[in-house]
């Protein structure tokens, strides 16, 4: 009962501090109040009075518990009650003369009372427990405890955030120790405390019985959850409705494929940070003006996939909703959550991650393994490790979160260190495909570029060549007048609704890119509707080292064309990548396209079923690892291959992907494991680095090691042929498929993959 006092009167202190400087409080010694005042008037004073009135009500309730300790509390309560009533009756424009002086007197009495309460706490005998001990413990298991209680930390900052008062901190040593042992985890539990208090970070919640996830085909609840009030949300809901039948069909197919096996239902929070007002939300106002839609496409599909898979999902589109779902204490984010994390998984983006850092305090570090970050262009391990990035020049505005790199989830499978989340494109049935092939207009081209700025400078040459062979169509946004950047020979339809754009693509033979935007969903939609996609080749490849768009992004990935996935995973005849600066090459490509007939094509991994399959596998299996192995040689040569595999005679530790998928290879000097695995027909699997980061792997590959060392370096494990030096990785967060060095050949953990589903190995389901 005693600690509740501090909550009330220090809330008043924080209220005064927060009112823009009209009231300020500074603690002198152990007294929290020395108050200076300025006279307010008009509407400004009215707002202040309302806040004071609300706070007085809180103080009155909490002072009631002091009524038996000191007669002054009863008197003060009566005076506060009178003040509160007077404020509520005061007319507009009321000048609060003398009000602050009266509050000051009450506050001083309450402050004196707090000092006496602290003396009671530290000197009284607690019934049945002996004397309360508030001395700072010296426990080797809690080495940081003395420093946290010391004047240099807890004493200096406990008034800086109202969350400390929310947890009962009132400036006394006892309150510091209780907070640091029960809310945070820097001090040992106090033996004399009653540990039936509300749950905090130390509380291990009783494990709820597992519930089975059941596929859902009705999207009504999801549409209600998405909400209203923004054009971005309206766009996402239209997309969800349009694809509803395809999601339902995909759910039934996957259910049959999984043979109705048990799937754990997870509690999932989805916080769409980039659409919150707090992040600036520059996307919503541009939805109907030709702005980028790729992120909204992906988020709509993520929400639908999680819902259809049957998980218990909450959706947050504001910081206030985020705080409520997580149980964030009132204040400025210095304190942990009020209880255990109420979710198994949290899907967010970089904006949301920053907001969580601001409001979760230490809890973010404690619970970061539950977070999944939707990250369009990818985050490589060297940029993700904060200390390493800072020391070695990889620090950017977006990386440095010290997550497992697989917690970042990309739009395309371009960064094997991350997980490929993706999105979906509409799938056509056989009747629709035949109709499209029969009705294609052989000399019709549609330009990929909704904003007039994309048509500026440097486009005239190849557009003139295109115009010699084809009728050129555009979908450029405009309000009243045709954009002057668009050549007169282009038939501009303006910004089209999705279904009208789809009809245009079903007629067109060619969908042509200008080089920007990078890696969007539109080329896949065009290919799915029977178009050939023509795009520019980049010489040299664009990257964060040479191109403004990628500068500051946490990746060194080199982008060889506008849409590398289309170039590498789809290719001819559906995709042609040429040098637009070479007129002859461009001309030849157009004539070849006009001669070529293609069927509508959509990679399985971008169908609704493909995305459900992938997301299901991540949720049920990602992060599972452990177990032991029996002695014996770990790696053995595979037939007809230069790679090594896991020995069948050795019991494999628990792993996902399973070790049956492992293919151990050696890269060339200055070759990344991404490239080494691709050249052998595999993909790099970062989860397997822990399996090959050992002497057994080097011996299996017959590597000569005169020197063996363990270091922190994102190209390890690796070896130098010239110096016969071998290095193992000491920091698991720096296991990197992307790293390469001219000095080293790398040990590369490759794996096989399912046809049409590069994210999953053959045995991954």
UniProtKB/TrEMBL annotation:
It is a single-pass type II membrane protein. Pathway: Protein modification; protein glycosylation. Its EC number is 2.4.1.155. One of its GO terms (cellular component) is Golgi membrane. GO terms for biological process: protein N-linked glycosylation. It comes from the Eukaryota. It is an enzyme of class 2 (transferase). Its main location: Golgi. Residues 1-20 form the signal peptide. It is found in: Golgi apparatus membrane. Pfam families: Glyco_transf_18 (PF15024). Residues 163-750 form the Glycosyltransferase family 18 catalytic domain. Coiled coil: none annotated. The keyword Transmembrane applies. One of its GO terms (molecular function) is alpha-1,6-mannosylglycoprotein 6-beta-N-acetylglucosaminyltransferase activity. InterPro entries: GT18_cat, MGAT5_Glycosyltransferase. It catalyses: N(4)-{beta-D-GlcNAc-(1->2)-[beta-D-GlcNAc-(1->4)]-alpha-D-Man-(1->3)-[beta-D-GlcNAc-(1->2)-alpha-D-Man-(1->6)]-beta-D-Man-(1->4)-beta-D-GlcNAc-(1->4)-beta-D-GlcNAc}-L-asparaginyl-[protein] + UDP-N-acetyl-alpha-D-glucosamine = N(4)-{beta-D-GlcNAc-(1->2)-[beta-D-GlcNAc-(1->4)]-alpha-D-Man-(1->3)-[beta-D-GlcNAc-(1->2)-[beta-D-GlcNAc-(1->6)]-alpha-D-Man-(1->6)]-beta-D-Man-(1->4)-beta-D-GlcNAc-(1->4)-beta-D-GlcNAc}-L-asparaginyl-[protein] + UDP + H(+). Keywords: Glycoprotein, Glycosyltransferase, Golgi apparatus, Membrane, Signal, Signal-anchor, Transferase, Transmembrane, Transmembrane helix. Belongs to the glycosyltransferase 18 family. This is alpha-1,6-mannosyl-glycoprotein 6-beta-N-acetylglucosaminyltransferase.
